[in-house]
Structure formats: C-alpha cells, structure tokens
Amino acid sequence: MLFVETKKDFTKINELRVGSRGINVKIRVLELFDPRDVLSRHTGERHTVREALVGDETGVILLTLWNENCEKVEIGKTYDLLNANTTVFRNSLRLGIGRKGKIVESSEEIPEDIVNTENNISEKIVKAPRKRWY
C-alpha cells in the first residue's frame, strides 16, 4: 500500500482556545526570554523552561519550551509545531509542545512584517478549566 502524506491543517493563533490539543501551528519566533530552572512538584526533577513570543498574521502568543526544546528555536525563524496544545498559566493562555509534540523548522516562512503583534492572545485574561477529581 502506498503511503501519501497529506498536507497538515494549521491552526491560526487567533483560533487557539483553552484546552486545544493535538493541533498544528505555524509560528514565527519574535522574541526569546532567558531560560530558567524549575523544580517539578511531582517528581522533584529539575527542568529548564524558556518562553518565546511567537506569532502569525492573526496574533501572537507565548510559547513555553521545556528542556531540549529550549535550544531548538531562533529569533526570526519560522517553525511548525506539530501535535501542540494550549495551557493556562497565571490566567494567561500559552502554547506548548508537550511530550508528544514536535517542533520542526518550516519550509514556509512567515514574514516579520505581516505578524499581528497588536493581538496578543496571552495578554487576555482566561480562567483555567476546573479539574474534576473522581
């Protein structure tokens, strides 16, 4: 049987919602913040965390990068985030890659002059969904 890769559907920044999972997002890295070390409350392990301001023609959002992914991005480059997700941290919507996600340099560039920096999704206050304990 012949395997044919289909074109991936990409979600635009302004379409991101609380709890989005398994989405593909094409982003341009606009700014990288200093990495910091954090201690996991659950396992006690140390992790490196870094945030990046990323965007497309519809808006910008903070991307949270963990461990080895912290060094995979550069300012000014365009990347495809595959199997990404959104989270809420301190009432701010964030984009993340997670354990099952992947970040790859994109074959299509998002020009800097078309990125909509006026629509910062992470600056809009959102409430985290309530967790149910069964």
Structure description:
This protein has 134 residues and is mostly beta strands. It has one domain: OB fold (Dihydrolipoamide Acetyltransferase, E2P) (Beta Barrel), CATH 2.40.50.140. The chain is 0% helix and 42% strand. The chain is built from no helices and seven strands. A five-stranded mixed β-barrel has the order 1-3-4-6-5. It is globular, with a radius of gyration of 15 Å. The termini are far apart.
User: What is the CATH first-level class name?
Assistant: Mainly Beta
Give the DSSP E fraction (strand runs of 2 or more residues). 35-45%
Helix content: under 10%
> What is the CATH H-level superfamily?
Nucleic acid-binding proteins
Taken in chain order, the helices and strands follow as EEEEEEE
**Secondary-structure arrangement, i.e. CATH architecture:** Beta Barrel
User: What is the end-to-end distance?
Assistant: 44 Å
CATH topology: OB fold (Dihydrolipoamide Acetyltransferase, E2P)
Number of domains: 1
What are the SSEs and their pairings?
Elements: E1 21-32, E2 36-39, E3 46-56, E4 59-66, E5 78-89, E6 92-96, E7 102-105
Précis, in short:
The protein is an all-beta fold and 134 residues long.
Key terms for this structure?
134 residues, OB fold (Dihydrolipoamide Acetyltransferase, E2P), 5-stranded mixed beta barrel, globular, disordered N terminus
